[in-house]
Amino acid sequence: MSSLPTTEQVREWRDQLAGEVEATDAGVLVDLVAALEDLKSAAAAAQARATAAFDARRRAEQAAAGTPAARQGRGIASEVALARKESPHRGQVLLGLAKTLVTEMPHTLARLGDGSLSEFRVMLLARETACLQAEQRAFVDEELCADPAALAGVGTRELVGRARRMGAELDPAALARRARRAEADRQVTIRPAPDTMAWVTALLPVAQAVAVHATLRRDADAARADGDPRSRGQLMADLLHTRTTGAPDTGTPDAAPAVPLTIDLVMADTALAGGHAPAEVVADGVVAEVVPAEVARLLVSRALAADAAVWFRQLYRNRLGRLVAMTSVQRTFPRSLATFLAIQGHGTCATPWCDAPVRHTDHVTPFEHGGATAATNGQGLCEACNHAKQAPGWRQEVISPPVDRPEVRTVTPTGHAYTATAPPPAGWREPRFVQVGQGRYGLIA
Predict the structure, then answer these.
(1) Model confidence over 23-79: pLDDT tens digits?
(2) Segments of 52-204 assigned E as strands
(3) Phi and psi for 297 in degrees, rounded to 5?
């Protein structure tokens, strides 16, 4: 097997691929599309081999440095995530996939390398065989992926179905245990949707999920039979909200029920008075969502009309648009300062490419190394990122002056540096100079 290309070679290819596509025959263009798809898969296979080798090397270095066995491997997934511009969770998934392909599924890795499979389909195969013994997984790997011709024209659903059927034949008890363990993964998540909406998703065992949906549907149909003008979907959504929060059902076809929860509404006073600066809606453990000023005013008016408990916490900006700083003499961040830091980062982990909500408030320069418990030395992190930076060889430093938005440089054990800058407040644009005449410049915001 030939060795992997060097970093310089890969960067040369990247620069070449950044060029313009020349107008040519349609058949040539579709051939280029197909070849680039194969190249993407080959690159994913090379990434997997490099990632597995990196993991082995870093663990060997940690062992040689005397790191306890229980702590060896800490931070490696975060290093992979930073290198691939992904979240720490995604980095952990990609690291696990790479090690599985290299050590247990060589035929699947080979099909990824020759373009027969995409990284997404390979990940599905690894997931479907995760509950099997190593030798059983190797058997499925050989049966499904040893022959590239056997994968020609096979769709994703059919491929996953083949792996699932083989797993059920080889070890049906393992699949049953996997189904039982899956109940421990039940959870509720939230993610943004277009037009100031959001998806609240519940991962439930199928029996519970069917019961929840059937109950909401039945009660929504009953309300419609009694003359409620809302659609079934609107009623099911409003019933879910009111039964979860205990709020009265004040919804109409054109407006959802009022929010009875305490929220942090970060907005400029001009927005409350009729301005156009957007606002942010924040809650503990939820990433901030930017909403237009008119939507923010509607939230306020509905809450007040419904006598909902609403607190307004205004964080004012200085003349440069920066949030006002706070400090403390304590070793741990008090709740007010922790809330300030979380809102300053829009409720999102301060690590680059990490979209997880803030769970921990952390000193950039550790307290034991003289770091102050202050907004200028604090950051909101998710649990995974806070634990990763505790691994040997990680260090951080604040690199921005106090008047600017916080900027933190993270240096990993390999010496690679990544910079994260706190996002600006909603509606803020960076001041900049523009030419307004011959030799004349004006400062605009």
Answers:
(1) 778 888 898 899 999 999 999 999 999 999 999 999 999 999 998 888 889 899 999
(2) 187-193, 197-203
(3) -65, -35
Q: Which residues, listed in sequence order, are joined to residue 348 by a DSSP beta bridge?
A: 357
**Residue-range domain boundaries for the chain:** 7-184, 186-257, 260-321, 327-421
* The two structure tokens encoding residue 119: 């990284």
CA–CA dist 44, 10 (Å, integer): 13
Cα 201 to Cα 188, 189, 190: the distances in Å are 5, 5, 6
Starting from the edge strand earliest in sequence, which strands make up the sheet with 417-421, in order? 395-398, 407-411, 417-421
Rounded distance between C-alpha atoms, residue 306 and residue 197, angstroms: 21
Question: HSE on the CB side for 219, CA within 13 Å?
Answer: 14
Residue appearing with tokens 């058997």: 139
Residue whose token pair is 């990284």: 119
Strand, helix or coil for residue 289: strand
Q: What secondary structure does DSSP assign to 305-316, as a single string?
A: HTT---------
Distance CA 121, CA 130 (A): 14
pLDDT at position 356: 85
- Reduced DSSP (H G I as helix, E B as strand, rest coil) percent helix, strand, coil of the chain, to 5: 50, 15, 35
Q: What is the dihedral of CA 148, 150, 154, 159, to 10 degrees?
A: -90
- The count of residues in the chain is 445
Query: 428 vs 265, 400, 423, 431, CA distance in Å?
Result: 16, 18, 10, 9
What are the tens digits of pLDDT across the range 154-213?
Answer: 999 999 999 989 988 888 888 778 777 777 888 888 888 887 788 889 988 888 888 999
Helix (H) or strand (E) holding 302: helix 293-305
pLDDT range class, residue 435, cuts 50, 70, 90: low
Closest by Cα among 387, 424, 116, 414 to 268: 424
DSSP letter for 394, please: -
Instruction: Name the helix (H) or strand (E) containing 246.
Output: none
Q: What would the two tokens of residue 304 be?
A: 């007040």
Q: Which amino acid is at 358?
A: V
Task: Encode burial over 412-438: b for 16+ CB neighbours within 10 A, e otherwise.
Answer: bbeeeebebebeebbbbeeeeeeeeee
| β-sheet bridge partners, residue 411 | 395, 417
Place of tokens 């400090």: 327
156-170 helix and 134-145 helix, angle to the nearest 10 degrees: 140
Per residue in 226-259, pLDDT (tens digit) is 999 999 999 999 999 888 887 778 778 887 776 6
Phi, psi of 215, deg, nearest 5? -65, -45
